[in-house]
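Sample intake sheet
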Amino acid sequence: MIEAESEGQFDRALALLFGQTGGVVDVVALDASTLWLQFELPGGIAAATVQPWSTIDLLTISPGGDAFVVVRGRGTERRGGRYLLQWFDPDGGTRGARSVEFVAADLQKSEVASFLDGVSEGFAARFRGDAESVRRTIAEALYTPEYLPGVRSDARNLSGGGVLIAVDGTTWVRQQDADGMRWRVFDPMTQELAQVGAPEDLSLRFVGTEYVWGVREGRFGTPELYRYRISRGSTEPSR
């Protein structure tokens, strides 16, 4: 579903991820004003890529379609932040809500530099431009908050990857704060059950009762599917 303005530019959209049986397994709400990094390359070429630290809301739907969860207010502009988890019925009725605290992690200059280097080299090669001038152009348009978002999504993938509902009804939220990256697990009554460690470059796609499936970037930049066993006695999933 896409909601369009009269000028024909969408300002909000829902991207759906479908499972093998055809049912919806994930949904994310997109805000075009913050998701896209738009700039003009030398020579007047208009270009756009993902905004890596944008503050869009994230939304996910349960595999059975009986509930969905929204993560709002991810607090990137202050050291001590909060985000709001809200559970809803399919008709939009509220099941519950929980305000979650986190201590924001600093956005490292090296992370910004790495993003600029990779993106500018790609655009420069594609449009045969000077990499340094392209880098400066992108840097001027880039949104760089002082702190990282409390809930991290995979900006390269429109399915989000920052919040999932498992088949048992628990909600998994990928939190980034001063203590590092981890998945916080909540039950349908908003009670926190566990904190699970996982590789930082792993973008979860499905959470079962004993295994999780996720995507990591392979040696040659191609996506690779991984399966990890959920270890109940540890905060780290076993591969």
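Comment: The chain is about 15% helix and 40% strand. Residues 1-11 have pLDDT under 50 and may be disordered.
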